[in-house]
Amino acid sequence: AAGVIQSPRHLIKEKRETATLKCYPIPRHDTVYWYQQGPGQDPQFLISFYEKMQSDKGSIPDRFSAQQFSDYHSELNMSSLELGDSALYFCASSLEGGFNTEAFFGQGTRLTVV
Amino acid sequence: DAKTTQPPSMDCAEGRAANLPCNHSTISGNEYVYWYRQIHSQGPQYIIHGLKNNETNEMASLIITEDRKSSTLILPHATLRDTAVYYCIGAGGTASKLTFGTGTRLQVTL
Lengths: 114, 110
Prior knowledge:
The complex is a heterodimer of chains A (114) and B (110).
Chain A: E1 5-7, E2 10-13, E3 19-24, E4 31-37, E5 44-50, E6 53-57, E7 64-68, E8 74-78, E9 87-94, E10 104-105, E11 109-113
Parallel strand pairs in A: 2-11
Antiparallel strand pairs in A: 1-3, 3-8, 4-5, 4-9, 5-6, 7-8, 9-10, 9-11
Chain B: E1 9-13, E2 18-23, E3 32-38, E4 45-50, E5 55-56, E6 61-64, E7 70-75, E8 84-91, E9 104-109
Parallel strand pairs in B: 1-9
Antiparallel strand pairs in B: 2-7, 3-4, 3-8, 5-6, 6-7, 8-9
């Protein structure tokens, strides 16, 4: 069965550079979530989209932005990268806003800022 | 989203049932109880969810108390591959995000 696809799987950037992470949800899923997981920490919610509109916002820095496109894939744009942005970034997708249904997570993008 | 409380760690012998408790006394009427697990830096994996009735699937059983203030996830025959961090999450409503707490680190041993 198709799963959530994230690209790239690994990314190394220098401080103050920009990065774009991509997420391709499971076909027919209309909801996408982004999470950040620092070393030894639990996943922290960043932002979500339902039917291409932002539906919820968590602890996402102003340097980050995201959007969901007409084909439902999503991109997380990160600018002015800092060392503290080094983390695993997970994307998840679900049907119908996630109400009474499960979310499926991708394998994540490991971002290292040097 | 409801605040949940879980023990930080638990051990379980392989082949035995693992019973993971969760307190969610502030859960609201339209919030579901979800359980996910994360195996070492992999993406979190859905296990089961329920509203007020007990639920069972091929992975686990979920027992929710009648007052909905707590629940227990049961892995009937734990294996070494079940070693993971298990998260209990209360969530509901459209486009409802999953707020991960600290979870329970389950160690299954021989």
